[in-house]
What does this fold into?
Amino acid sequence: MRKVFITAAITGAIHTPTMSPYLPITPDEIVENAVGACEAGAAIAHIHVRDPETGRPVSRVDLFRDIASKIKKRCNMVLCVTTGGGLGQTDEERLRVVPELQPELCSFNQGSMNFGIFPLLEKIPEFKFPWEKSYIEMTYDFIFPNTFKSLSNFARAMSQYGTKPELEVYDVGMINNARWLIQQGLLKQPVYIQFVMGIMGGIPATVENLVFLYKTAREAIGDFIWSVAAAGRSQMPMAATSLALGGNVRVGLEDALYVGKGQLAKNNAEQVEKAVQMINALGLEVATPDDVREILGLKGLDKVNF
It folds into this structure.
C-alpha cells in the first residue's frame, strides 16, 4: 500500500484578511491551524508568517521561531518554512530563516516569473486594512525574482544547515533550472518537487499540464519525489490527479479559501480531511510525519534550531 503525504499550506502570502475571516494571521492562529491539520492527517505544515496586527506577510524571524517552537511542543509534524516570503521581499529577507531556524524542510522557488494577483481587485470593493489594496495592485508590474545567482546562494545555505529543499516549480522551464543546480552539485538527488499550478504567470492547472510537468521532469532529472499544489478551485481536482499519477498532495488556505462551492473553509483541517477521504477512497495510506522523514531523508526534529 503506497503511503501518500499531505502538506497543509497554512496561511501563505497571497490571500489577505478581507478575503476570508478564517485566514490565520496571528502566531496562535497559525499554530492552531497547523496542529489541527496534523490531527486531521497532514504530515507537513508549510509556514509563512504575518504581522499579527494587520495580517500583512512579513519575514520576521521572531514570529517564525515562536510559531515553529509552539507547533513542535504540540505535535511532531514536519515544518516546511518558506523562503518565498511575501511579494516584494528581498533575497536576504527571504533566506534568513534558514540559518536562524535550520528547519528540516523549506520551500525553494526555482525561477523568476510574473506573479499576478491583481485580478482579485475586481472582486473586492473595500478592504479591511489599507495595505491590502496596494499589495495586490503592485503585482500588475511585478516580477518574482529568482536568478541563477539567487538559486545558487539559496541552495548553498540549505545544504550548509542540513535543510531539505522543496523545489517549487511554477512552470516547465523551472525544471531546467533544477537540473542545472543538480549538475552543479548544489542539489542532491533524489530531489523533492512541488508542482505549483494555476498562478497567473505560471502554468495553468490542467491534467494535461501536470502530466507534461511530470514527464518532462522525469526525462530531465530522473527519479524524484513530488507533490502538487493548485490555486483556487483547482486545488482538489489537481490533488486527485496527483494521487492517480503517483504523487502527493498539498492543500491549505494559502492555495484556496474554500472547501466547497461557495463554502469558505473555516480552517486548514477541513481541506486536509477532504484529501484524506480521497486517499482512503483510492486504497492508499496517509503518511505520518515520521513516514515523511524517511521518504524525504530529513535530518529529524531533534536537529532543528527552534
The chain has one domain: 3-299. The chain has a mean pLDDT of 97.
